[in-house]
Amino acid sequence: MDIEQERKLVAENPDNGEFHYLLGKTLREKQQWEEAKDAYQKAVDLGFSSWEVYQEWGDILVNLEVWDEAIGAYQQAIKLNDRAIDSYLNLGITLLKLELFAEAVSFFRNVIKIEPEVTVAYEYLGEALSQEEKWDDAIAVYHEALQLQPSLLQPSLSPIGERLADALSARAKLDLSTAVDYYLQIVDTYEDKGEIYLKISQILEQQEKLDQAFIYASYAVDYQHRDWICSLAESIPRDQSPEQDYTVFLAEIAYKRSQLYPAIPEFNIPDSDYALWRNYHTRTTEDLRQICLQVAQLEYKPLISIVLPLEDGENIEHTITSLQRQVYPYWELLVVWQEETSDTLLLASRKKQLAKIVRKYSQWDCRIKVQTGSEADLGSLANQALAMTQGEYITLLQEETILTPDALWEFILHLEKHDNPDIIYGDEDRLEGENTLTQPWFKPDWCPDLLLSCNYFGSVVWCRRSLVEEIGGFATGYHQGYGYDLLLRLTEATHNIGHISSIVAHRPDKIAPEASTKVITAALKRRGEAGKVIDNDKFPHIKTIRYEINKQALVSIIIPTRNQGKMLNQCLESIFDLSTYPQYEVIVVDNGSDDAQTLEIIATWEKQHPNQIRTIKLDIPFNYSQLNNEAVTHASGEYLLFLNDDTVVISPDWLEAMIEQAQRVSIGAVGALLLYPDERVQHAGVILGVTGIAGHSYRNLPVRNVAPKLTTTNYSAVTAACLMCRREVFEAVGGFNSNLAVAYNDVDFCLKLKEKGYHNIFLPHVQLYHYESQSRQEEDTPQKQKRIQQEVAYMDTKWGHIINNDPCYNVNLSKEKEDYSLNLKPQIEVISVALTEVSEAELWGFFIDEPKIGCLKTNSLDIIGWVIGRIAHAIALEVVCNGKIINTTTINQPRIDVEEVYPHIPASSNSGFHATLSSNILPFNGQLILQVKLANTMTIILGTIQLQCR
């Protein structure tokens, strides 16, 4: 009978359960699972049921992955027939799929009890026991199956032979792990700790856990060296020096680890610019293998404790795998999650799966420690993890984050290069799906007001553990905001904050707007700054703080002008018509206007608002700094607002918003979002070193396109076309520099504020139109061009160190455009230059003059120096990278300075070399070896240069 006939019978006999069952059975055979499920449900509801019906229904539900109902159906079949082998077996398989291994075991044992000849039950039972890591029980089950049917050793009949071998291998490794556990228990009480650590390392090497073997071998070397030093102090001879045995073993593991370091994974990068950037900046597998060798030479090897409280652990395997791929191996991972109290099978299955995954990693990697907690709050769980840490630094890591292989190495390099920061964060991008990288986020250095707008420190942050403990650890009640809260509290205790300007993490974009609002509100209260956190519905990860104004102080609005009556008129109209803040005065600085219309407009405004507007006449050659400085001496306001006459107010509460920030003791200059009349951006903060001395953020881009990126943040400078500050800070830095008559006076002013420790701030919610093009005059005369050259020279001399590396920007972003596009002309930084000690019998002397540590190069690297051979003439300098000679330069350059030191050596006069290496052949992150070739074919290493791409 076909399906249509059976449907007709069901329609004619809707209350007959048997007809529903027969229809369902046919549908099941046709694999029309959803309709079959409904038919079986109807049959059972009508009372047509048997153990066979429930068993078949369970099979249908399994195909639909309706697990709870499938389990219930099988359980009902067993209840009706306690010898229903297929029901036991299928229920066990279902539980196995759900990774409820302990529950599955009993059902497979029931099958064997009822019918010992069902060999597939042994296979599944062994798998369940293996998943629980009950290796002895699993091995016994596999042996029992093979005794019952020896032919099962044939792979074509069953995988039991292979699984038995796997279980035996796993048990052997477990025995070695048990030995490691015992060694670790006795090491603290053992006199020769180095010997114990060496034994642990040897076991781990046998298990091919090379990272861990390397760590314990280095511990052995450390302790052997300490014992050797002590023996010297006590004048007790020893049979071996610390350079023997342990050090050799460490070097062997380091080499083996470097050779076996896995190839870096391939990523899909749709953005061609970002793909090109990564080609320049991402370390290759060979680079990482070289670092594995360098790690063995480190003197300072701090343990990094990674705190990871879990909420759902969805991508925990990827996170842990990325940790285990780190070239810097001295880390520990502290994982804590809430123990599941729910009795629903699916929730229990998820928690058991999480526990299984994490415990599997912890069993095979002693750097991973796990614990469960009774509370669901992530802050509470993080405190549990914190209590287990032993490292000098802890790492806040979001559970979905994947670290780049060199992330921890970058952290160590940053520690070595800087003054031991208390907090370090890095740049990151987004991982979409399994392997697609998008949205690189190249962040500024420490910007306190940006951190109050969003947690821009990101998904991986390193913090000094002692400081975290000093401020009381993690707070509870913020759930996903637990890390953000800690960071805000830490930055209240220290400003020693570092930033790694390279990608160290990939993570999905996961935000918790409710938590961030709560965290920021608490921070304001803690800091005694009354204010309200404003949400943005479209961009919930960005917050705006509107502070309460302490007092209604007078604002002096200073507007220089000359013969621009029409523009001045619309500027004043917008101020007086729109401004909602009442306490302001306007000081018009007339720089020698002789246009009748302009003079009439000024006079009219003075008559209309005699108590709020007045004019100061300064008929001098235009000098923006001098005009404003003089106006300040006539101003009565506690706040000074410098405003161009070609601006028009858009935001009615512009003065309130700027006062809210200017009143804060940490704030220097306050800037606004200035737009061209066609809604393109004219100013959204000043970026130093872009398009010259300085450029305007997002200039000429439609504001609608960049609006998601605009937030309250710190810039090194803001434009004086609309700039507010407190009078006290203006006077503290001596106002504007009158030597900068036209250009860069606002940048210079802001940098003087920054030098005094103030933060300059940009407010996107304060908006004005700026008719810049209508009032700007071209620099088209020799006199004007000379003046601009002088101003550029002044800025280069005075502020070149910050202009070349704006802390509120990022070296990975373009210096040719103002649109935050990527810098596709990477700079190479010289991290170190190390000279080798060579025998005086080989060389009279040598030196490397260039490059210097810290210098940045874009297109090429110059290596300049001199060398004089003693046993033979020095003929060439060779530059070696990754074992290959990449440059050979003849040694024949004149060096009069060297000749003066070695007048008796004829070769000294032409002992110089000058090698120029194109960036195309340089390792952007790697080491150059400099060696000299002598006439007798002997090669002598002069030193090394360590490079890093920025």
Kindly describe this structure.
With 950 residues, the protein is of the alpha+beta class. Strands 12, 13, 14, 15, 16, 17, 18, 21, 22 and 23 form a ten-stranded mixed sheet that branches. Strands 1, 2, 3, 4, 5, 6, 7, 8 and 9 form a nine-stranded mixed sheet that branches. It is globular. The model is unreliable at 228-243 (pLDDT under 50).
Q: What's the helical proportion of residues?
A: 40-55%
Assembly state (oligomeric): single chain
- Tell me the radius of gyration: 37 Å
The DSSP helix count reads 33
* Uncertain regions spanning at least 5 consecutive residues: 228-243
- Average pLDDT, to the nearest integer? 88
The class by helix and strand makeup works out as: alpha+beta
Shape summary: globular
Strand tally, please? 32
Main β-sheet, in a few words?
10 strands, mixed
Beta fraction: 15-25%
The end-to-end distance, rounded to whole angstroms, is: 75 Å
Task: Please provide a brief summary of the model.
Helix 5 packs antiparallel against helix 6, helix 9 (135-148) runs antiparallel to helix 10 (160-186) and helix 11 (193-206) packs antiparallel against helix 12. The strands form six sheets. Strands 12, 13, 14, 15, 16, 17, 18, 21, 22 and 23 form a ten-stranded mixed β-sheet that branches. Strands 1, 2, 3, 4, 5, 6, 7, 8 and 9 form a nine-stranded mixed β-sheet that branches.
